Amino acid sequence: MGIDVRIVDESGRELSCLLDPQNLTKKLLPDVSDGRFHCLRFIDLYGDTVFNRYQLPVVIAEIEIMLKGTKDEKVRVHGTAIIELARRALNDVHQYLKFYGD
Prior knowledge:
- The chain has 102 residues and is an alpha+beta fold.
- The protein is built from 2 helices and 4 strands; from the N terminus they run βββααβ.
- The longest helix is centred in the last third of the chain and has 18 residues, at 73-90.
- The radius of gyration is 12 Å and the shape is globular.
């Protein structure tokens, strides 16, 4: 099982979901010790991680950096879908991008 990504509201209600049955999200994450990444390196593979609208532009930029380093088309498509979710979550206050670890 991979790291599913969801847009949730302030009550935790799911508004949109991207499932990760092939464990592709993990391939977009830097090592936790990589200080160049201020958000992605803290995504918990086994727990939940939530980003708010102020963090989302950083999350988007970091995923874009990781996408430049991959040649795997499945990972590229999955990462692009995460970016799309993150951009949608930016449109409203009280919406969050939540990564659900295994």
